[in-house]
Amino acid sequence: MEVKRRKAFVVDEQVWKVLVNSTQPVGAYQIANMLPKVSATQVYRVLERLVSSGKARRIAAGNAFVVASSKTDAIVICRKCGEFELLECPEAIEGLERHCDGRSFQAKQIFLEMIGTCRDCRG
Ligand SMILES: [Zn+2]
């Protein structure tokens, strides 16, 4: 039992390291490919835990994951180089919440994802 638990912890750590060091969103299979002894299913389980604890986000574009925090409101992703940046933009979120209130829609979570071209790629 103890050994099993430690193994799970090691996998968690490995997946987390990949995510933290990645400048681009990464998919579960990509992560599994980087970790020789870890299966994609294991990676998925870890990612699900990270997402539910707010430490990572699943992005809609490309079914990939990025590291995040509770302060992360938005992510911008460059469609040319694939690099991403996490943004805090509470005023935008507040605006959307007001919009939802106006329609009597109770938003549980708002997360913005923007696809575009970064400064480097725009040249
Ligand atoms: Zn770029």
UniProtKB/TrEMBL annotation:
<keyword id="KW-0238">DNA-binding</keyword>
<dbReference type="InterPro" id="IPR043135">
    <property type="entry name" value="Fur_C"/>
</dbReference>
<dbReference type="InterPro" id="IPR002481">
    <property type="entry name" value="FUR"/>
</dbReference>
<keyword id="KW-0804">Transcription</keyword>
<keyword id="KW-0805">Transcription regulation</keyword>
<keyword id="KW-0678">Repressor</keyword>
<keyword id="KW-0862">Zinc</keyword>
<protein>
    <submittedName>
        <fullName>Transcriptional repressor</fullName>
    </submittedName>
</protein>
<dbReference type="InterPro" id="IPR036390">
    <property type="entry name" value="WH_DNA-bd_sf"/>
</dbReference>
<dbReference type="Pfam" id="PF01475">
    <property type="entry name" value="FUR"/>
</dbReference>
<comment type="similarity">
    <text>Belongs to the Fur family.</text>
</comment>
<dbReference type="InterPro" id="IPR036388">
    <property type="entry name" value="WH-like_DNA-bd_sf"/>
</dbReference>
